[in-house]
């Protein structure tokens, strides 16, 4: 397949059809819906409006499309999922995160479905699949980020319950979630961690406003647990599987963040081309300057390289291969190079690109975050070197 900033994947008929439908939905329905309701990427999450997006996206076959057919999904491969995630961001939709179910939906639950008991599936996870409930994932603490073993949130068995105490931060989707998939240390058992399904309206549990990241998105919440009782049947998996569940999810998320970054870079490229065609400098379009042409060429090359790496890794994962090293490589390369694309886009836009509220400025802030989110570039380099040395 030859390179295109907006590929059609004609050699993948099902994927091609989904792309056509997705682009139509974004341009004809979702983006007009956002304009009608004054929704921007920095607007607080509104559960009622999000539920409308979940319902419509599910009707169109996008919400939870990654799930197997027995769960009303389309059984998308990782390759297909990466393509669709790139497309969502490339169109600049503020609510793009809710179309496939990233924000509190099936993608947020991720591979956790395979650990769930029939009771947990029926009460918690299947309603998420149907867009009736929302969840968040809670692992990080103030002093336990990259080193999650420093977590101080504890769980202790007491009769037919576990009592949880502690605080989790940076729980994306917590402001609109019904429950959390939360990892805690088993009190008095050393390095033993377990995962629990915690109803966020339980006595002893409260959700506080989280820090607003530099992207301006009001999507984070902190979860405070004060002797919060969780039924023993809400233990997810087995005692001691908490980090396997949590870190396994993070490894896959490192790969799945990448197409979102590529889509953001694509959007920055599109805006830069449009601006440089219409901006007149010394009697000619900015695009006529070789310096601008070179910047655009470098930006397109970075996008092509990142996409090629990510889709090759996704295809490898679809064959059942271990991609732990490649996922780190993808996240490192994509985060660094897509941010460079955004930086060049700001440079091309000049003072306009420095203005708060300008779309390019917002993309710049958003992509800068991902050199840290789900692992810093330095953490990725350490992991790659350790695996290959």
TrEMBL record:
Residue stretches making up the Acyl-CoA dehydrogenase/oxidase C-terminal domain: 240-388
Database matches in Pfam families: Acyl-CoA_dh_1, Acyl-CoA_dh_M, Acyl-CoA_dh_N
Ranges where the Acyl-CoA oxidase/dehydrogenase middle domain occurs: 136-227
InterPro entries referenced in this protein's UniProt entry, alphabetically: Acyl-CoA_dehydrogenase, Acyl-CoA_Oxase/DH_mid-dom, Acyl-CoA_Oxase/DH_mid-dom_sf, AcylCo_DH-like_C, AcylCo_DH/oxidase_C, AcylCoA_DH/ox_N, AcylCoA_DH/ox_N_sf, AcylCoA_DH/oxidase_NM_dom_sf
Record flagged with keyword Oxidoreductase: yes
Keyword Oxidoreductase (UniProt): yes
Classification via PANTHER family: MEDIUM-CHAIN SPECIFIC ACYL-COA DEHYDROGENASE, MITOCHONDRIAL, MEDIUM-CHAIN SPECIFIC ACYL-COA DEHYDROGENASE, MITOCHONDRIAL-RELATED
Cofactor needs: FAD
Family: Belongs to the acyl-CoA dehydrogenase family.
The name this protein goes by in its record: Acyl-CoA dehydrogenase family protein
Gene source species: Blastococcus goldschmidtiae
Upper taxonomic lineage: Bacteria, Bacillati, Actinomycetota, Actinomycetes, Geodermatophilales
Ranges of residues in domain Acyl-CoA dehydrogenase/oxidase N-terminal: 22-132
UniProt keyword terms in alphabetical order: FAD, Flavoprotein, Oxidoreductase
């Amino acid at each position: 397949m030859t390179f295109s900033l907006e590929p059609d994947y004609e050699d993948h008929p099902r994927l091609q059809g989904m792309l056509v439908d997705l682009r139509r939905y974004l341009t004809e329905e979702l983006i007009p819906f956002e304009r009608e309701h004054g929704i921007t990427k920095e607007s607080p999450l509104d559960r009622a409006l999000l539920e409308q997006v979940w319902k419509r996206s599910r009707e169109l076959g996008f919400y939870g499309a990654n799930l197997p057919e027995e769960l009303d999904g389309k059984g998308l491969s990782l390759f297909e999922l990466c393509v669709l995630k790139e497309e969502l961001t490339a169109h600049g939709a503020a609510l793009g995160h809710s179309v496939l179910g990233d924000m509190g939906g099936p993608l947020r639950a991720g591979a956790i479905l395979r650990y769930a008991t029939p009771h947990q599936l029926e009460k918690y996870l299947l309603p998420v699949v149907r867009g009736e409930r929302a969840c968040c994932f809670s692992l990080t603490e103030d002093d336990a980020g990259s080193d999650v073993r420093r977590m101080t949130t504890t769980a202790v068995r007491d009769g037919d319950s576990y009592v949880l105490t502690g605080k989790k931060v940076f729980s994306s989707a917590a402001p609109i979630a019904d429950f959390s998939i939360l990892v805690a240390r088993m009190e008095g058992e050393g390095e033993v961690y377990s995962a629990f399904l915690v109803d966020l309206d339980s006595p002893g549990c409260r959700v506080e406003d989280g820090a607003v990241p530099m992207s301006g998105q009001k999507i984070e919440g902190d979860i405070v647990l004060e002797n919060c009782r969780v039924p023993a049947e809400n233990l997810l998996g087995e005692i001691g599987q908490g980090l396997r569940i949590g870190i396994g999810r993070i490894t896959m998320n490192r790969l799945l963040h990448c197409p979102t970054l590529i889509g953001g870079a694509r959007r920055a490229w599109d805006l830069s081309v449009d601006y440089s065609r219409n901006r007149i400098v010394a009697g000619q379009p900015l695009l006529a300057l070789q310096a601008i042409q070179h910047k655009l060429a470098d930006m397109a090359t970075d996008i092509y390289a990142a996409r090629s790496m990510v889709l090759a890794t996704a295809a490898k994962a679809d064959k059942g291969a271990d991609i732990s090293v490649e996922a780190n490589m993808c996240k490192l390369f994509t985060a660094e190079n897509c941010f460079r694309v955004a930086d060049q886009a700001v440079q091309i836009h000049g003072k306009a690109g420095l203005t708060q509220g300008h779309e390019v400025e917002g993309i710049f802030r958003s992509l800068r975050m991902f050199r840290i989110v789900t692992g810093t570039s330095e953490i990725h380099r350490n992991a790659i070197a350790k695996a290959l040395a």
